[in-house]
């Protein structure tokens, strides 16, 4: 597990100067944007969880302190500010949003990130059902 965190840290550092835009992920990744309030949730990324995310083409971005992601790139500080204005929508609590492959908002919730709900929602999407049938 230590090697994983080292690789993840290197990916994050490499992506810090990235010009990644949400539009760049359209049709490539489903996206979860998580805006935690004051570090109230510890995220435990086990190998099995990361595999489930990869299988669903899910890119997770956590915006607290230093941004965290399982994607090879991250957003610039300016882009993060724009994402917060667009998707956090003034919420004073932790909130998160699930964005589909088509770039549309599929789910928005206040509170802690619920990966089970994220997976359940993705698995019910027509494109995901088609993906599962092909595999």
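^ Assign residues to that structure.
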């Amino acid at each position: 597990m230590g090697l994983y965190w080292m690789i993840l840290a290197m990916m994050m550092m490499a992506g810090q100067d990235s010009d990644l835009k949400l539009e760049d992920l359209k049709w490539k990744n489903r996206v979860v944007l998580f805006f935690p309030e004051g570090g109230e949730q510890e995220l435990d990324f086990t190998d099995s969880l990361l595999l489930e995310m990869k299988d669903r083409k899910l890119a997770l971005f956590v915006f607290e302190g230093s941004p965290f992601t399982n994607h090879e790139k991250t957003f610039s500080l300016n882009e993060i500010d724009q994402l917060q204005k667009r998707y956090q929508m003034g919420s004073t609590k932790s909130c998160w949003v699930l964005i589909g492959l088509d770039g549309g908002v599929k789910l928005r919730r206040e509170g802690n990130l619920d990966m089970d709900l994220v997976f359940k929602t993705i698995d019910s999407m027509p494109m995901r059902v088609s993906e599962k049938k092909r595999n």
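DSSP finds six helices and five strands in the chain.
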